[in-house]
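Here is one chain, start to finish.
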Amino acid sequence: MTSDIKSKVQGLDPNVKARDIKSISAQTANIYESISVITKRAEQISIEIKNELHGKLDEFASTSETIEEILENKEQIEISKFYERLPNPAIIATQEFINGDLSFEYREPRVVHED
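Its structure:
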């Protein structure tokens, strides 16, 4: 995701919208497992975005001796605004899941109970 965030979110609606539960649960056969996969991916995306943002903002870090000498940098502000406008990581992860872009596996053998 790092350095590829712009292309991943391009054209992605940043607004939350209703989703069909059956289609989301189809990949795992259980809505809770699907939500778990999406949640774990959203956490990864959130960390990646945070690290990418901090990396870009660190380029502007100045080694001043006093806190009062903080200068506003127009480019730094624009970078921050870009990241503020990004869709929520949960929205990005949900779209990746729906598109089949996520791969996941079970750590332990999965037992399915048929009622």
